[in-house]
Amino acid sequence: MKKSNILQINNDFIKNELQKRKKNDVENRQKTRFMGLILVLAIFLFILPTYNLVESYNTLKDKEKQLVQLKERQQELIRQEKLESSLVTKLKDEEYAAKYIRAKLQYSKDGEFIYNIPGLLPK
C-alpha cells in the first residue's frame, strides 16, 4: 500500500473553521426551508384568488346564457300578447265572436251539423 501524502492539520484554527462551516450549512438549510415555505404560501395566495376568479367567470357565463334565454322568452311572450290582444279586439265584433264560439266550442244552431276540419279555426 501506498502511503498518502496528504497531511491533515488538527489544530484550533481548523476546528473553529469546521464549526463555522457547519454553522453556515445549518443556517443555509434554515434559510432554504424558510424561502420554500414562503414560496408555498405565495403559491396558495395566488391559487385561491385564481380559483375564485374562474368560479366568478363561470357564474357570469351562466347568467349571460340565462339572460339570452329570458330575452327569447320575453319576445315569445310579446308575440303571444299581440296575438291575444288582436283576438280580444276581434272578439268585440259580435259576428266574429259568434263564429269563433261556434268553431271553438262546437256550438251549432238548430238543424246544423258541425264538421271539424283542422286548421280552419278562426284566430
UniProtKB/TrEMBL annotation:
It comes from the Bacteria. One of its GO terms (biological process) is cell division. It comes from Streptococcus minor. Keywords: Coiled coil, Membrane, Transmembrane, Transmembrane helix. The chain crosses the membrane at residues 34-54. Residues 53-80 form a coiled coil. It holds the Pfam family DivIC. This is Septum formation initiator family protein.
